[in-house]
Specification:
The protein has one domain. The mean pLDDT is about 85. By secondary structure, the protein is mainly α. The radius of gyration is 20 Å and the shape is flat. The chain has three helices and no strands.
């Protein structure tokens, strides 16, 4: 690889990182707002039990835990 190609890749990586930082910042705000809204609605309007509230709050994390198991099952 010559120097021009390396500089080109650095420019692409720098731009990608810049856009990813903005995208992930906005994504974090939206995700936190959605989770808070879901919990507030479940508590105020549906009178959710403690178990239901804990399952709502941990739903994304449980999905991350189960994903490898499902991939193993699908791969067989």
């Amino acid at each position: 690889m010559n120097g021009e190609t390396k500089e080109h890749h650095k420019g692409i990586a720098s731009n990608t990182q810049k856009f990813d930082l903005w995208r992930n910042t906005c994504n974090g705000i939206v995700e936190a707002s959605f989770a808070s809204t879901c919990l507030l609605v479940s508590i105020r309007y549906f009178g959710a039990s403690d178990t239901a509230k804990s399952l709502l709050a941990s739903g994304g994390s449980i999905g991350f835990l189960f994903a490898p198991l499902f991939l193993i099952l699908i791969g067989k």
